[in-house]
Amino acid sequence: MIKHAFQLQKLLDETIRIELELEGYSISSNEWQTLKELCHVFYKATKEISIKKEYEKLQIYYSKTDESIIYPIATILDLRIKLKYYKQQKWEEDYINKSF
Fold it and tell me: Do 4 and 39 reside in the same domain of the chain?
């Protein structure tokens, strides 16, 4: 909501300047700047939390790839990947051979 207010900042300031009864609701330049800084802090914190949560979720799904033969088969059958992925990830040859 505050982010949207930044987009309308000039319009809001002009409306408050014209409508005298709204004068008590005016936002100074310093207050706009403080709001921008506050939004930046929340943006960074939200981004960091989201990345951590997504990483945890990916770890859960990634660990499940060992539970099924379908994922390795699909990887090998993909002409772009084949065994290249497993070798790039430095999987041991014995593990690759046993898996397939």
Answer: yes
